[in-house]
Design brief:
Layout (H helix, E strand, L loop, with lengths): L1 H33 L9 E5 L5 E6 L7 E4 L2 E4 L6 E6 L5 E9 L3 E9 L5 E12 L2 E12 L6 H12 L4 H13 L5 E8 L5 E6 L5 E7 L5 E6 L5 E2 L1 H7 L1
Antiparallel strand pairs: 1-2, 2-5, 3-4, 5-6, 6-7, 7-8, 8-9, 9-10, 10-11, 11-12, 12-13, 13-14
Helix pairs in contact: 2-3
Length: 243
């Protein structure tokens, strides 16, 4: 009798535990279902770390940040308004993104990746512009060589100084000095279609001088163009002799 009673008690205990577990499980499922959002309409989403450091910003064009925050200071970057996604490193500084915009006159998107403390070094770009009733297109993959000794912060501070100069000619001269000193780096690689309709591979050295152009021109002709260290047209034989 006692043995049967003990078995009955044990059975009831197990049944009670199972019932509680089932209730907890179904309640968890209900809570999970309550967190499912079928549709979300917003103008901007900020994804941040626990301390508030930005990681990803998903935004429409009106709410896109046009400034750059570097070491806690905001700089006017002059970026045009576009919707997209901006990505940030662990310091909360921008490190690339995906931007897109378009209307009847201008249409395009750009996916870019930045060098640490500097501007973009790799980008996938597509642009369409309507000029004088004619559509011009550029699209392809581009690479840049950026200096390690010059940062975006230094560039922006120099540009702030230059913008305070009253004379337009003096401002232009100062910008040219920055370019000659290598502040902006150089576009060294492009594979794709140029504005003039040529499609191919275009290579430059670290100073931005053209070196190799292998492409199909706008009339459908295959072209191979080589340039020496002075930017003058040359041949493979002459380049080999220079080396």
């Amino acid at each position: 009798m006692n043995k049967k009673l003990n078995l009955l008690i044990a059975y009831n205990v197990l049944l009670t535990i199972a019932l509680i577990a089932y209730v907890l499980y179904t309640n968890t499922l209900n809570n999970q279902n309550q967190n499912i959002v079928e549709e979300l309409t917003v103008e901007r989403i900020n994804i941040v770390e626990k301390d508030g450091t930005p990681k990803i910003i998903i935004t429409n064009k009106e709410r896109q940040p046009t400034d750059l925050v570097i070491e806690g200071k905001s700089y006017d970057y002059g970026r045009g308004k576009a919707g997209g996604i901006l990505m940030y490193n662990d310091l909360g500084e921008e490190m690339g993104g995906y931007l897109f915009s378009g209307d009847e006159k201008e249409h395009g998107f750009n996916v870019s990746f930045d060098q640490f403390k500097n501007d973009q070094i790799l980008a996938l770009r597509s642009s369409e512009i309507l000029r004088d009733g004619n559509k011009q297109k550029l699209y392809g993959l581009a690479l840049w060589e950026r200096p390690d000794s010059i940062t975006t912060k230094q560039i922006l501070e120099e540009e702030e100084r230059i913008e305070k100069i009253i004379s337009e000619q003096e401002r232009q001269n100062e910008y040219e000095k920055l370019e000659k000193q290598g502040y902006y780096g150089a576009n060294t690689f492009f594979a794709g279609r140029l504005w003039n309709g040529s499609t191919g591979l275009f290579l430059r050295d670290k100073t931005g001088n053209g070196k190799i152009r292998l492409f199909i021109d706008e009339e459908g002709n295959p072209r191979l163009e080589l340039f020496d260290k002075n930017g003058e047209p040359t041949s493979i034989e002459k380049i080999s002799n220079e080396e």
